[in-house]
Amino acid sequence: MKLWVLRHGEAVPHGSRPHDSERELTDNGRKEVLKVAAELVGQPLTGIYASPYLRAQQTAQLVREALGFEPEIRTVEWLTPDTEPDKVAEQMVAVSNVLLVSHNPLVGNLLSYLQHGAGHLPERISTAGLAELESNELLVGSMRLNGIKHP
Known about the structure:
There is one protein chain. The chain is an alpha/beta fold. The chain has a single domain, classed as Rossmann fold (3-Layer(aba) Sandwich). The protein contains 4 helices and 6 strands. Strands 3-2-4-1-5-6 form a 6-stranded mixed beta sheet, with helices on both faces. Strand 2 (47-50), helix 2 and strand 3 form a beta-alpha-beta unit. Helix 1 (27-37) packs across helix 2 (54-67) and helix 3 (85-92) crosses helix 4 (106-116). It holds the Pfam family His_Phos_1.
């Protein structure tokens, strides 16, 4: 199975909107996302899951459109920034070949957790950074990081 984890593109700074969840992608953020979306062309993607935050929704929609991916984006509360990685892993047990669109600190923590288990430093990932993990099954601490593409 493969799992792709995408951090949202660059967003407007904190303070420009009343709530963090309402921050939008910048023009540069949209360009970043489209650049890394190209990495997913031809991959066996079966679903796109995204945080309900606006910038993650915009990121997921840009990827969906760029790939011509027909299924709807699945908006889930367990991809918000402060979710614990084990909560995400619980949700991923029955799925494979999906894209998760989320935020730091969750993205960095999740990548580290899936590769090494609990208690390791988070993986460093920029905005619109796309990580690809692979394993025969989702087993915490044993997934292989095939690489991280930065825009």
